[in-house]
Amino acid sequence: MASKVNTGKKPQINHTNPLAHALLEKLDYDQLTNCMRCGFCLPACPTFRETGVEPESPRGRIALMKAVADGLMEPDDMFRDQMNHCLGCRACEPVCPADVKYGQLIEQARDALEDHPVHSLPVKGMRKLFFKGVFPHRSRLKSLGRTMKFYQQSGLRRVARGSGMMKLFPKHLQDMERILPDATAQGVIEQLGTVYPAKGTPIARVALFRGCIMDVMFAGTNVNTVKLLAEAGFEVVIPPEQVCCGALHAHSGELDLARDLARINVRVFKEMNVDYIVSNAGGCGALLVEYDHLLHEDEAWKEQSAWFASRVVDISKLLVEHGRIPAFRDGASSSSEPVVVTYQDSCHLRNVMRSGTEPRQLISQVANVTFQEMKEADRCCGSAGIYNVTQPEMASQILEHKMENVNATGARYLLTSNPGCLMQMKLGVEKHGCGEAMEVQHLVDFLYERLNHS
Amino acid sequence: MLEPALIAQLRDIVGDTHFRDDPEALIAHSYDGTPMLQAKPDAVVYPANTEQVSAIMKALSTYKVPLISRGSGSNLCGGTVPVEGGVVMVMHRMNQILELDMENLTARVQPGLITADFINHIEALGLFYPPDPSSMRISTIGGNIAECSGGLRGLKYGTTKDYVLGLEAVLASGEIIRTGGKLMKDVAGYDLTKLLVGSEGTLAVITEATLKLIPPPQSKMTMLAMFRDLYGAARTVSAIIEAKIIPATLEFMDNPTIRVVDDFAKLGLPLDMEAILLIEQDGDPETVERDIELIRQICMREQADSVQVAATREEAERLLTARRSAFTALARLRPTTILEDATVPRSKIADMVLRINEIATKYNVTIATFGHAGDGNLHPTATTDARDPEEIHRVEQAFEDIFAAALELGGTITGEHGVGIVKAPYLEWKVGASGISLMKGIKDVFDPDHILNPGKVFAKETRKRVVLQHG
């Protein structure tokens, strides 16, 4: 289509408030102007649906950003809270007639807020520890994994829970701790090496983006991803120097840190000379696929980041579009009754990577399985990166409504495509499950376990 | 600023959580779907029921403070922008279907109900509510009634006014009135129901509506016809009606729209076509098939370049894509999109489209036209940039000429969006000085202190009408 005429014109205002000044500087004023306030985003927005009030909608938040930039209002505490109240699920983007890049606007707003923070000391410390100290560093993540594994297996966890020590933490953190999977220091490379050959004639050479949390908490899923890709005809390489994608940083207003991580990943993957860069986590993939935008102000990285972004694909889409899809069969069920399976979209996989149909296509191909579409499966589950930790109230309200729809499917398996959603759904089943056993799994694990190993 | 005593009263009526006067709430209720209009209210209230609405109105009339009632704020005429400050009343909490009467085929609903939610609900029960404004996924029944919204099915099924049988409303004084009922015939006095439908929140606050439901059509067929000659397309529209066929949908796109849509949706549309007609008929299967065949013959007779009839529902969906993409495709061209709704007798569509194109050239602005050809309701859409005052001025001049052209052709300044602020300066062109004074008289009776949605419908000053030179 004809590209939109963007003038970059901003109002000439000398804000005395430094935060207002930063917002005017950082916000893309063209995008603010592009919002024509039609309101089509309102029914798509989870926080608007929960509250029914305009400021809790994308149209409302954009109006607030623009009002601050235009000098119509001061960026007070309520403004700050409202910007943080957004889940960042980006369900508003596919329904926007004017193609407003809301996800970019909210990140720019949070970036400006982070330059003028008001975090309490403990939160500040936690943010620094994780965003700067842990996520970017593979070795520290691994030792975190080892520590967690120790905590989980040594009996410390039992002691912690038994002693009532966990009760010292806020309720929602106690809940989170309960559903944490077993961590490991044995990531996908430690288990499979850096190159894994294709089964049969290779269709393409692909690189796995292993993720930071994925590889510590869900290393098994990474291993299954590689094996499933190989089974479908792809040669898989896993660049060992790759780092965290930076999504949690970007969504929390740490854009500079996210850019640093992006540059490392672009360099490392570029050297591998691959046809595709495969992600198995919607949250990571959605940022990877927008590295070109993240680095768009950096002339030196323009070409390389575009190269990178154009190759990023979710495993489900790659399998459906280019793979030799192997036969899957559910043999677990002894009766002839097919097993009922449902799927919770990863918002970022659906709304940003636009891969909503492929996971469903794959599930439907498994023999002896009935796919039961969940009502509003495309709505955020409330996990949203670290949202369920920072905004526990709204997250738990959204989860409760989500679980009504989950339970209505009567499914035996609930599948998803992102670690955050996976943990949130596990929490949901534990808190609001309807009693009967429902298993929550990553789509890749479910498929891999049902491969017909002939 | 509201007086503290009034604030205390309002808090008392709706409860602390449903009264807001913080900067966030004021900014978020300072706009609607209309470009380039913004004004902050003094407070926002979210009433739970009719009694609260009545109590709020009593308080506001004592203090003579304006009240702007609104649903989702998706209108395109500036109808819910609080230009004179006051209190914005959001009806979202009053969103229940109160009763479905299957014996009378009526529904009693609250105004904050989202139109699409209502339609989904009653369609699942095998019923049909035809008004389908493009905003229905977010707009409310109350908003649709206040603006008398139309939609794609207006030609065959009518618009919102044809489905409102009765209303409950709160007057400026706080008095609660009930009009009409579950009645298909009712001539007891002046028709207050019809008067309130389309009154844009300037006469009363609608708190409940009794709606007419009808049985759904059994089947539907869809076709697309392309024309190199604009008049061929226009004659086709007239010929279809002349043949005594009333299609369920009869939509039109002009050449500038076709180009933009094709660029956006990559549909491979022929770019040298001057017009595309999208036609749907519904009803019992035999009649539908007969009508579609007759329409196909009419299209061919009027030199259509191509006619496609969808064999399956999927194919129909594909044909519908072009028309459905029109607004989105246009909205993405430039930062600001101004969508108007000049309407002419359907026999004048070709003349009107040509006039619009001439006017766009004259002022050097981009205007594409699509719309509901069957009822003559066109949507000339300007793509521009609110940050360029000089260009915006030319766009405004162009629209002024377009309104004048519509009137010259026997049409009107607005078919379904309402007058609001945007078209208030032109209302007198349509209804005349005596029409305005009659309407003002009605306003005075309902709302003597002018506290209901002030600054709308009636302009402080009517635009001087320029007599256009033809050619």
TrEMBL record, chain A:
<dbReference type="InterPro" id="IPR004017">
    <property type="entry name" value="Cys_rich_dom"/>
</dbReference>
<feature type="domain" description="4Fe-4S ferredoxin-type">
    <location>
        <begin position="25"/>
        <end position="56"/>
    </location>
</feature>
<dbReference type="InterPro" id="IPR009051">
    <property type="entry name" value="Helical_ferredxn"/>
</dbReference>
<dbReference type="Pfam" id="PF02754">
    <property type="entry name" value="CCG"/>
</dbReference>
<keyword id="KW-0479">Metal-binding</keyword>
<keyword id="KW-0249">Electron transport</keyword>
<dbReference type="InterPro" id="IPR017900">
    <property type="entry name" value="4Fe4S_Fe_S_CS"/>
</dbReference>
<dbReference type="InterPro" id="IPR012257">
    <property type="entry name" value="Glc_ox_4Fe-4S"/>
</dbReference>
<dbReference type="InterPro" id="IPR017896">
    <property type="entry name" value="4Fe4S_Fe-S-bd"/>
</dbReference>
<feature type="domain" description="4Fe-4S ferredoxin-type">
    <location>
        <begin position="76"/>
        <end position="108"/>
    </location>
</feature>
<dbReference type="Pfam" id="PF13183">
    <property type="entry name" value="Fer4_8"/>
</dbReference>
<keyword id="KW-0004">4Fe-4S</keyword>
<keyword id="KW-0411">Iron-sulfur</keyword>
<dbReference type="GO" id="GO:0046872">
    <property type="term" value="F:metal ion binding"/>
</dbReference>
<comment type="function">
    <text>Component of a complex that catalyzes the oxidation of glycolate to glyoxylate.</text>
</comment>
<dbReference type="GO" id="GO:0019154">
    <property type="term" value="F:glycolate dehydrogenase activity"/>
</dbReference>
<keyword id="KW-0677">Repeat</keyword>
<dbReference type="GO" id="GO:0051539">
    <property type="term" value="F:4 iron, 4 sulfur cluster binding"/>
</dbReference>
<keyword id="KW-0813">Transport</keyword>
<keyword id="KW-0408">Iron</keyword>
<protein>
    <recommendedName>
        <fullName>Glycolate oxidase iron-sulfur subunit</fullName>
        <ecNumber>1.1.99.14</ecNumber>
    </recommendedName>
</protein>
TrEMBL record, chain B:
<dbReference type="InterPro" id="IPR016171">
    <property type="entry name" value="Vanillyl_alc_oxidase_C-sub2"/>
</dbReference>
<dbReference type="InterPro" id="IPR036318">
    <property type="entry name" value="FAD-bd_PCMH-like_sf"/>
</dbReference>
<dbReference type="GO" id="GO:0016491">
    <property type="term" value="F:oxidoreductase activity"/>
</dbReference>
<dbReference type="InterPro" id="IPR016169">
    <property type="entry name" value="FAD-bd_PCMH_sub2"/>
</dbReference>
<dbReference type="InterPro" id="IPR004113">
    <property type="entry name" value="FAD-bd_oxidored_4_C"/>
</dbReference>
<dbReference type="Pfam" id="PF02913">
    <property type="entry name" value="FAD-oxidase_C"/>
</dbReference>
<dbReference type="InterPro" id="IPR051914">
    <property type="entry name" value="FAD-linked_OxidoTrans_Type4"/>
</dbReference>
<dbReference type="InterPro" id="IPR006094">
    <property type="entry name" value="Oxid_FAD_bind_N"/>
</dbReference>
<dbReference type="InterPro" id="IPR016166">
    <property type="entry name" value="FAD-bd_PCMH"/>
</dbReference>
<keyword id="KW-0285">Flavoprotein</keyword>
<keyword id="KW-0560">Oxidoreductase</keyword>
<dbReference type="Pfam" id="PF01565">
    <property type="entry name" value="FAD_binding_4"/>
</dbReference>
<keyword id="KW-0274">FAD</keyword>
<dbReference type="GO" id="GO:0071949">
    <property type="term" value="F:FAD binding"/>
</dbReference>
<dbReference type="InterPro" id="IPR016164">
    <property type="entry name" value="FAD-linked_Oxase-like_C"/>
</dbReference>
<protein>
    <submittedName>
        <fullName>FAD-binding protein</fullName>
    </submittedName>
</protein>
<comment type="similarity">
    <text>Belongs to the FAD-binding oxidoreductase/transferase type 4 family.</text>
</comment>
<feature type="domain" description="FAD-binding PCMH-type">
    <location>
        <begin position="37"/>
        <end position="216"/>
    </location>
</feature>
